[in-house]
Amino acid sequence: MPKNKTHSGAKKRFRVTGSGKLMREQAGKRHLLEVKSSRRKRRLSQDQAVSPADARQVKRLLGR
């Protein structure tokens, strides 16, 4: 049986931590950055955990 392929879009958007948690980038830091405060931009830079409702599907896309 052939190997399963990892979803190309998912591997660019999600990563798995050492403990197995799924992480994602936060939206809103691509453009219109002049109007956003430094505090807001700094907060948006931090990774966020994937919500439990989406975690199962994300794991499947990543082949885990």
UniProtKB/TrEMBL annotation:
Signal peptide: none annotated. GO terms for cellular component: ribosome. Residues 22-37 have a biased composition (Basic and acidic residues). Residues 1-15 have a biased composition (Basic residues). Pfam families: Ribosomal_L35p. PROSITE patterns: RIBOSOMAL_L35. It comes from the Bacteria. Keywords: Ribonucleoprotein, Ribosomal protein. Residues 1-64 are annotated as: Disordered. Belongs to the bacterial ribosomal protein bL35 family. HAMAP family: Ribosomal_bL35. This is Large ribosomal subunit protein bL35. The lineage of its organism: Bacteria, Bacillati, Actinomycetota, Actinomycetes, Actinomycetales. The gene is rpmI.
